[in-house]
């Protein structure tokens, strides 16, 4: 074309969680049975929506109102309900329904939040990073994502000193992103760590983004905190949704909770720009929004959340038992969400290791891929070819540590036991090869 029409940040739009699917489908076509452990879809892994939530959906579908447009910012009754939930939290920041804005899933919200920023304004995010955030932030700026370190030797907690130094020496940083519970590590941050991040934001006049999509999947013994309970007077955006906790990932229903909006005129103008852009789209999907007050407000919902969190906690315990004594890796127990990160220790991997692959066509395909990839991706490819298990390399999460992430979602006990044992045995065999 006579003009280059490609945005400068297009090269940063990568999503390893989905991109590895292309290779897996090739391997499946060559005869290998595939076990998908790459993406956090509870429904795909066999979880069923509980009957009483399904009943609510059926009743809503009988209402003509679910088939029409809703208010641009979201269903008014739902925003009223959620604002009330925020305002009754102990010592929490107060909001109005106008401080909530609905999107077609958190992925949509992420794209809009970063896309509405001035190009020179950067958001400092964690490493390992969830790809949706890191790609969107890098794409909006046209440069690589700026990150702070999560410490694998301290339960994947944020390195607060690293955050402070990154902010101090890079005045383009306008905000700090955190995920708690975190994806991919499952780490849940205590109030003391969150307070330290707030102090940095106060000192350098920043805002904070908290992705809280897993905030209701927190294991017993870990803090259950929403952004409104710890952000103090700092402007902030909390990202919430129903995809992981109903669970209903296909609903594509997420929202922003805007906190301390009036504390800063520039931040308020920024949020106004998000709402203005939403008006061009008209609104987000009506039906899932209408379900929220009825599901969240049901007396059975707290027990529903408690039961699901306990299930994932028990599966995380299974992982710890299977990987006990595996000296080649670090396997921190998660405190929430439904992911497990396995990190290889330094010096463990090299470019000569492999796993035996019985199918010659699969072996040929895998061996054509591995010469030019990172050491952990090499392991992931051999694992796929040899066992059919598809996991995500840790370096695919904008991270310098080698490792991989898999889910705690498999509902079949026998199959889950096979997956865990196969992962452990494959690591042992690969290291010794």
Characterise this structure.
By secondary structure, this protein is α/β, with parallel strands linked by helices. 40% of the residues lie in helices and 14% in strands. The protein has helices spanning 16-29, 51-61, 76-87, 106-115, 131-141, 160-168, 191-204, 265-281, 286-296, 301-323, 360-369, 375-387, 413-432, and strands spanning 35-36, 100-103, 122-127, 147-151, 157-158, 173-179, 207-211, 236-241, 254-259, 329-330, 339-344, 389-390, 392-393, 403-407. The N and C termini lie far apart (50 Å).
Mind telling me which CATH architecture of the largest domain this is? 3-Layer(aba) Sandwich
Mean pLDDT across the residues is: 93
Number of helical segments with 4 or more residues: 13
CATH classification class of the largest domain: Alpha Beta
Looking across the biggest beta sheet, what order are the strands in? 2-9-8-7-6-3-4-5
What percentage of amino acids are in beta strands? 5-15%
Q: Examine the coordinates and then state which fold CATH places here, giving the name of the CATH topology of the largest domain.
A: Aspartate Aminotransferase, domain 2
Radius of gyration: 22 Å
Label the structural class: alpha/beta
Q: At the fourth CATH level, what is the homologous superfamily of the largest domain? A: Type I PLP-dependent aspartate aminotransferase-like (Major domain)
The H/E string reads: HEHHEHEHEEHEHEEEHHHEEHHEEEH
Distance between the termini: 50 Å
Shape: globular
